[in-house]
Structure prediction request, 166 residues.
Amino acid sequence: MTGFETLYRAELSYVLHTLRRLGVGPAEIEDVAHDVFVAIYRHFGDYDPERPLRPWIFTFAFRMARDHRRLARHHREVSGNEDEGASGAPLPDEALDDARLRRSLTAALDALDFEKKSLIVMHAIEGMPVPEIARMLEIPLNTAYSRLRLARSAFEKLLERDRGTA
Prediction:
């Protein structure tokens, strides 16, 4: 098995999950994932093994999701609620509270524009440090911090608005 085949097998689920979180709908997710791996294959020789692999892969997924979202036919993000299953056996009221919170967080994240949503996904969910985000987006570090602050603020306002209507 080649190095690329090994990477593909090991990281396919990560790419699919990342694309879902970035708002790629279920109908297109396999096609976009295919495009991600084609791009990775083309640049496989450029990968520096001294650097972490997942942020490098995330860069490809981010760009493909961004390009996909820019297409005219993709104006609304589709959020998958695949995480809404009970893994243990929580009490019914806890499960209901968790489901409400998850729906609220997903709705707020989906209401953000792609750039803000991507920043929150990269930093809060993927754990990517802001300097890495700045390098990936090719923007100054202070700009990355500022955009992340604005994204968090918009996200918090959407959550507060949702709580007000609940």
